[in-house]
UniProtKB/TrEMBL annotation:
It comes from Eleginops maclovinus. It catalyses: (R)-mevalonate + ATP = (R)-5-phosphomevalonate + ADP + H(+). Gene3D superfamilies: 3.30.230.10, GHMP kinase, C-terminal domain. It comes from the Eukaryota. This is Mevalonate kinase.
Amino acid sequence: MTIKDLFVSAPGKAILHGEHAVVHGKVALAVSLNLRTYLRLKGTTTGNVCINLPNIDTFLCYDLSELKQLIPGSCGKREDGKLLDAELVRRLREFIGVTNGNLDTCNMATLSFLYIYLSLFGSSELPSLTVSVWSELPTGAGLGSSAAYSVCLAAALLCTSGAIPAPLKDLDPTARWCQDDLERINSWAFQGEMIIHGNPSGVDNAVGTWGGMLRFLAGKIIPLSRVPLLRILLTNTKVPRSTKVLVARVKDKINKFPSIMIPVLDSVDAISCTCEKVLSEMTSEPITGEHYNILEELIDINQHHLNVMGVGHSSLDTLCQVTLTKGLHSKLTGAGGGGCGITLLRPETDSSVVQTTVQDLKDCGFDCWETSIGGPGVQQHSPLSVKEEVLEILNRY
């Protein structure tokens, strides 16, 4: 089979409002983060399949004749992408030497890649190819880096296997897939996430696939048709935290003070719904300063609520104070207890203000990026539409 070179990218994700409350049946809003993961797939004649992940210093090649033997007898080409093939996962774990369940980032990424590759190509003809991935997202920061990786893998391998067409036409810089093809990409990306996380919610891969903003309520994920692109600062405090411990802390507080905490959750729910309404208005009428005033107030109120829930941290308080001295409004995003925060930038916020704020935050020992939320989901690129520095990295392999 002839394999065409393919470039794809997918965004990260941030929770705009509703973290922790979503665990207790309230609305959460997840948005795409325009720090992207880029993938290049190219055909080779080496008789190997290779995966290059320079972010995590992983460069591996596998002999196709060895991989063929791992495919369970009953497993032809699979295109459903609904349920994990437990037998194939078991064989792959054995093959890469991780049967004890302790997977590091490198093993999880490799397992996810080999699983999707073998499932889609079946035992018919395993193509010789090289996949190289570079991400602008930090790993393990709750920003959907593993889902962006899984979405890129699914899109590239589905295209190469012929299960979905490549959407890019001549002279297009970028192109997106149709709804049915996106459903299929999302379904396979979710399988990759299951291998990496065990029991994922499906929110991260859905944001990576569709982009924009998603409403998440009681396990149901609804992509919102149009949202404005908002400029933000994303700050990683680099304070490690355990999501499990923080979720348990909120639950304990609710059990201890139900009459106090249940109204807090209801208020967070109302914040998410109000924010959704304002963002929807911003796509259908001229954007005004008042829209931004409301978004800023919602950020402040929600951050106070998250502190009430017990998931704040002194590093996040510092973020809020540093940005407030510049007239900017911030909140934690994700689990809290450290981790990451987002700061809303108005269209008129001067670049000198942004630069000094970023520097002030870096001086606190944080990592900080200026980026945007609400951008496109997974897309195919022409080589010229890939950022020069990213292309340079992907073309090394």
